[in-house]
Design brief:
Chain lengths: ~130, ~90
Amino acid sequence: MLIISQMFLDEMIAHAIREYPLEACGLISGEKDLVKGFYKTRNDAASARIYTVNPLDYLKADRDAEKNGASIIGVVHSHTHSDAYPSPTDVVQAPDPAWHYILVSLKHIDPILRSFTIIDGNIVEESVVRLNC
Amino acid sequence: MAIEVRLPTVLRAAAGGQANVSVEGETIGEILKALAEDFPGLGTQVLSLDGSLHRFVNVYLNDDDVRYLDKLDTKVIEGDVVSILPAVAGGSC
């Protein structure tokens, strides 16, 4: 389960649209299932098909999260022409089994956002609980 | 000289749950080697079998990626902070 404010969800979708046609990426901070922050990061791959979170952006997000008593607990990225579901590349490169993996698909007119866990290569969709704040 | 090393969430379990550890060393290579000795579970996740930096790990000395400094030979001074971060990547293909 992912508990997240509607504001962060709106920011993630806006970031994905703004970066289109390239894939957008970002990081979330929080505690376990509760998201407390969203950090837009540069996609060093600058590609419509792959992303690489800029490591300095990651470092800055990590420091800010710690300053606020939180940790980085997941990554967000967009799929510009495919569904909001982890690709084989996403699964192979998933860095942390405790993380949440949020995908925003821009395949259709209305963006679709879904969240997953990826543990030992197994993809499991999790519910997204939206907070109105 | 003891240097503070910040660990990402994925590596903390191998360090007893600690987010920050203190390790002795004069260079990044010495620090990572000492880290691997103190916490054997961390060793293979940070360094390759040939002793080089693992390709899926980024190591920062303060705000600088050590790959753009002197890599494992990069010298550290008192007060420096070393941060280890996993490479975060993926894509739609």
